[in-house]
Amino acid sequence: MRGGAGRGGDFQAPAPLLTCRALAVFLSLQAPWLRSGPGRCEALAARACLVAVNPARGPGPRGARSGKIFHNLMERKDFETWLDNISVTFLSLTDLQKNETLDHLISLSGAVQLRHLSNNLETLLKRDFLKLLPLELSFYLLKWLDPQTLLTCCLVSKQWNKVISACTEVWQTACKNLGWQIDDSVQDALHWKKVYLKAILRMKQLEDHEAFETSSLIGHSARVYALYYKDGLLCTGSDDLSAKLWDVSTGQCVYGIQTHTCAAVKFDEQKLVTGSFDNTVACWEWSSGARTQHFRGHTGAVFSVDYNDELDILVSGSADFTVKVWALSAGTCLNTLTGHTEWVTKVVLQKCKVKSLLHSPGDYILLSADKYEIKIWPIGREINCKCLKTLSVSEDRSICLQPRLHFDGKYIVCSSALGLYQWDFASYDILRVIKTPEIANLALLGFGDIFALLFDNRYLYIMDLRTESLISRWPLPEYRKSKRGSSFLAGEASWLNGLDGHNDTGLVFATSMPDHSIHLVLWKEHG
């Protein structure tokens, strides 16, 4: 093979195999950090330097000797010696001269050398940094990538998938950003990527309005005015003088007992407590259907009841503007709390979880609400208690409160025409007002650390409380409206503090219908 080697000089190339090897070594000298061995590296530039470093050398005695060497197949030992000598010269060149040498060498190469060059360049230039870096440094770099990019990177190779999947902190953070709870006790390195994939699917279903399904409970013969949900069981109280206990998962009626007209219900495994339009409260035994206690004293319908077995106390709120405190086991009235000027539509007994000047953690607190005010009573300290505080959203009573109240021992939340109001229970200060200008008069169903469940006449909504934006909605039928809010309720509430892949099951929402059935909205099983 002949090629121009300078002014008036001819150059005879060595055999293709030697040329390929010289090319590889020569290129490795261009990038010292990629050298694969001293012998190979130092021998790389022989051909290049002979041709490009001194291209002007003519056909004199020395040039003739060079041509003779390369005309015959060079012996292995001679070739290695030649490469050693040329490498010294090449390494002494400037970067520009080295580049020119490379250009000239490539121009003299044939198809075999160019193919060899291409194969070696790919190996030399494409470095798998994720494989070479320490695992801790790889994890640090991965934290800067978004989850979707990480999932794409998992497709690069098995090694990348293994490293990325084991980056626990990255996937935990991704899950948190989606509003999922994190259990730090889980040690499985691959667990959290699987959780994230499950989370992203559920959030996509919520965004696409495909996360829920509906069902109905049929059994009452008159309007259903009272609902209460606990641990997979739904209690319904009706004007047909009965109360029923339903297994939501199967739709089967577990118990059905004869009662008075029910305006409010609450139950546990053994008993049912009902507030009635006949101005009384009653306690019933599920197993026998017998009435075990009858509480008389209100002069108006009883719209809300709550009780605590530990305190042996029952409380009731009535249309007579009062709240009564009863001895649960004896049935006697212990106290009548006054101060409301409207129907008392909600009473809540709850342990306090924060400390203030007025109460301590562990104290039982009673909240009672009417159309305009929420009153706070220290029910756990004394029976003859006085109101600690009255909360409202407008001093002139121009803004009404919706008939739903959330109290978890730390915060009080109630909705109004102006939005959701959240009070700090330690200071009674308003922490924030969450407004939804695009949708007016949203009513509160449930409130957690991450999500809130809201509804209006047409839809059920999920709000991300971190951004105060509505992330999902679900259509509702023409349900029975109730000014007291007793004919609709939220189901499972733990997911409001963050989904975890297990708590997004069961009942989401229930409401009574004009045809006396119960309309259920349930979580759809994961796809």
Automatic annotation (TrEMBL):
Name the domain of life. Eukaryota
**Alphabetized InterPro entries for the sequence:** F-box-like_dom_sf, F-box_dom, FBXW2, WD40/YVTN_repeat-like_dom_sf, WD40_PAC1, WD40_repeat_CS, WD40_repeat_dom_sf, WD40_rpt
Which Pfam family, an example, fits this chain? F-box-like
Q: Which UniProt keywords apply?
A: Acetylation, Repeat, Ubl conjugation pathway, WD repeat
- WD repeats: which residues? 217-256, 295-336
- Relate the assembly described in the record: Directly interacts with SKP1 and CUL1.
According to its UniProt entry, the function of this protein is described as:
Substrate-recognition component of the SCF (SKP1-CUL1-F-box protein)-type E3 ubiquitin ligase complex.
Protein name, per record = F-box/WD repeat-containing protein 2
